[in-house]
Write a structure and sequence with these properties.
By secondary structure, this protein is α+β, with helices and mostly antiparallel strands. It has 3 domains: about 110 residues, 2-Layer Sandwich (Gyrase A, domain 2), CATH 3.30.1360; about 80 residues, Alpha-Beta Plaits (2-Layer Sandwich), CATH 3.30.70; about 70 residues, Elongation Factor Tu (Ef-tu), domain 3.
Length: about 325
Amino acid sequence: MVHHRRKLHADARIVNAIQQHLATRRAAGLFDFSFMSLIEVDGIAARAFLDHAQTRSLAGLESGRIVYTLLLHDDARVFIDATLWKHAEDRWWLFTGRRTDIDTIQGCALRFDVRVRERSDEFAVLALQGSTSGRTLAKLAGEGVVRELRYFRFIEVCLDGVRSFVGRLGYSGELGYEIVVPAAEAPSLRSALLQLGVAECGFDAANSLRIESGYVLFDREITGRENPFELRLERLVELDDRDFVGRQAFVGLRRFEPAQRLVGLKIADRAASSLLPPARVTSECDSPIFRRRIALGFAAPSLSDGSLVRLDDGRLARTARLPFYDASRRLARAAPL
């Protein structure tokens, strides 16, 4: 009886995740991303510290801009990926997926006249994602605000009486927004958004959405052992005149073919020949859009798209170009209204 109840619970969870996934693809879903680490960097040397700590060039970056970036180890392995929000030249927000990252980042800042502090408990992060998310947001912020907010920008605005920072970005591959609000005010804003007909979504749906969209995740694709070339994120490393952590090693890596590269995998329901080249799965799901098992993983860079491979557990798969969904990545940049 206990086993039966557990199976029913697992089946219901799967059905719910599929419904949430499809609701986000077809309309809009609301996710609670408050597990993220929000690190505030402020002080006269804030920009100098960030030039040293991460891989993107910040020269000429306007306030209100967001950049997707990497933090590297000295040997150019990726420590973590992050988004960096510029409030002012002397005040920035750095978002990562792990609350434990603060110690390493504070250690990197010791020689700079800067304050690096964890503010995660003060704020909640609500992710409003999906093709109708702009229309939903406009009901609280106004159409003018939504039209003017461009991709990878953020603004401060009042939503249903709650002072909020709204960034246009996301993890679903759809048009979307991340809303940063004081933690105490998050329940009321969440309720206001749900009352507008948005689907409440959980991690399982977030995970399948990001796999379809080819987005990497900390502790899955990013484990501290991979370099930017292996993750197909070398575009995020900008070699201007900054001496950032991992720069010298990264320059050295450019001379060599990576040992492995991130790939999409379409998994078959049968065993593979032991003679096929290997591939290692890092994340997988049943795709509600493609109605098959898909995965992210690593394989030899010499393999072309469509190559047959043997997964580490013996299953057969075929490599695929990423992302699986919206290959041109146009949906996230689409007009919001």
